[in-house]
Amino acid sequence: MSARVVKPVGRGFLFLDSHPAGCARVVRDMAAEVAGPTGGEPAERRTALVIGSSSGYGLATTIAGLARYGIDGVGVCFEKAATARRTATAGWYRTAETAALAAELGRSWSFVNADAFADTTKDEVLDLVAAKLGRIDHLIYSVAAPRRTDPRTGETYQSVLKAIGSPHSTKSLAFEDGEPVLQEAVPIEVANDDEIAQTVKVMGGEDWTRWVAALQERDLLNSGFNTVALTYIGSELTGPLYRQGSIGAAKADLEQTALKLAADGVTAMTSVNGAAVTQASSAIPGIGLYVSLLHNVLGAADVAPDWQTPIEQSAALWGQLTGAVPLDLDEAGRIRLDRWELAHEVQEAVRASWQSATRDNLTKLADTDWFFAEVRRLYGFDVQDVDYDAETEVDVAWPTGV
Ligand SMILES: NC(=O)c1ccc[n+]([C@@H]2O[C@H](COP(=O)([O-])OP(=O)(O)OC[C@H]3O[C@@H](n4cnc5c(N)ncnc54)[C@H](O)[C@@H]3O)[C@@H](O)[C@H]2O)c1
Asked: Which residues are in the Trans-2-enoyl-CoA reductase-like NAD(P)H binding domain (predicted)?
């Protein structure tokens, strides 16, 4: 055991340590956002496997499923334990707290900390699914990874964030000594064909297909089974780097994969979620600025849609996946949870702010303080009611599962 005071150390959007008590509190706050309407037992047992369960949308889906819909499940993520020098990763602490929450709510959740791309992980996870859940009703695929080793070839692929076609530059938001600074033109390189292909290998649909196939081979799917993988479209402002870039090619592949799985008789869809501050998204140039401007626009009294948090979107997703509410699909068969973000008047207002943003007016147009606080919350800092001067136990055991 080792308790110590944990302070935010790092640069920009990257912190080296995470605060265990702060991360635990984040989980509790998310659960409180979607506490079940009755708190009672669900009418029938529903079971889910969530890949990418410790962070961002996968975490939100796990917590919303557990706390609002009484779903039992298995989560898979890739986190690091504490070392002599560093705390564990934030997702480690969030997973421990999610498991504690599940136990309190009388639900069965187990978490596997391993590389989701590996066949050995699939074997281990499916053994657990068979033992704990029997068959599953839902598979949520919410992985955001920088690289993937294909266990069948041994080859390792790296994903890149680059433009396709011609080079671009983007306005972007940086923090220098904690102060927000507008960068006028961060260059975006052009991806070559190999880089695009590698990004598709990492973030496209191949591994999702393998999970579905592995579940089918072991006869672990319930009759009403459905599966979703998360995708993003976003604004024209981030288009050159995101949707029209190398990552967009991977997202297009993921969306094609849903159609292929559906053609094979699997109820598979992608879910287009809205912009969120996550470890994966804050690393993308331009996204921090875009999200800060978007948040400011949606906070204005005269703009109709409200900001939809990941947990709100995840509750809406479960409503659709469980059949409680009808599916809200677009013409390409994708579930749309991002309509609030892409509403015409919202995008118009964000575009105007983006164009007029300068170093001098940045903090008037963009919610930069909110954004930086959200980034810090990803590591358990800036969380209400947490005493950051007190010692906190950093050696937290990986949950054994219930
Ligand atoms: N953040 C956004 O704005 C946004 C918007 C719409 C859709 N999405 C999509 O949601 C999905 C998740 O993204 P996020 O932003 O929530 O990411 P995130 O970084 O917050 O979470 C990624 C999760 O994947 C897990 N993971 C990473 N590599 C893994 C591996 N090899 N094996 C097992 N688990 C692994 C991590 O442990 C973590 O639980 C992505 O498909 C992303 O495109 C994100």
From this structure: 5-83
Is 69 part of the annotated catalytic residue set? Answer: no
Fold of the domain spanning 3-161+190-279+306-338+378-393: Rossmann fold (3.40.50)
Cα separation, 4 vs 20, whole angstroms: 10
Pocket test for ligand 1, best of 142, 232, 241, 291 (most atoms within 8 A of CB): 142
- What pLDDT digit, counting tens, does each position of 315-361 carry? 999 999 999 999 999 999 999 999 999 999 999 999 999 999 999 99
Please, which residues have CB within 8 angstroms of residue 169's CB and are 6 or more apart in sequence? 185, 186, 187, 188
Cβ atoms of residues 229 and 257 within 8 Å:
yes
Centre of ligand 1 to C-alpha 119, Å, is 19
Domain spans of the chain? 3-161+190-279+306-338+378-393
Rounded Cα gap, residues 49 and 126, in angstroms: 9
242, 290, 379, 388: the catalytic one is: 242
- Pocket-testing residue among 50, 57, 89, ligand 1, by greatest number of atoms within 8 A of Cβ: 57
306: number of Cβ within 10 Å: 10
Looking at ligand 1, which residue's alpha carbon is closest to its atom 44? 232
Tokens 């969306």, located at residue: 255
CA of 354 to the centre of ligand 1 (A): 26
Q: Are 326 and 308 in contact (CB under 8 A)?
A: no
CB count, 10 Å around CB of 151? 15
Ligand 1, residues at Cβ distance < 6 Å: 52-58, 76-79, 91, 115-117, 142-145, 230-232, 273, 275-276, 278-281
Instruction: Please report the pLDDT score of residue 12 as a whole number.
Output: 78
What is the predicted pLDDT for the residue at 41? 63
Within 10 A of 2 (CB to CB), how many other CB atoms are there?
10
The ipTM assigned to this model is 0.99
pTM flag (> 0.90): yes
| The three-state (H, E, C) secondary structure of 302-326, written as one string | CCCCCCCCHHHHHHHHHHHHCCCCC
CA trace torsion 75, 78, 81, 83 (10° rounding): -170
Cα 252 to Cα 205, 208, 230, 235, distances in angstroms: 9, 14, 11, 16
| Beta strand pairing call for 47-51 and 14-15 | unpaired
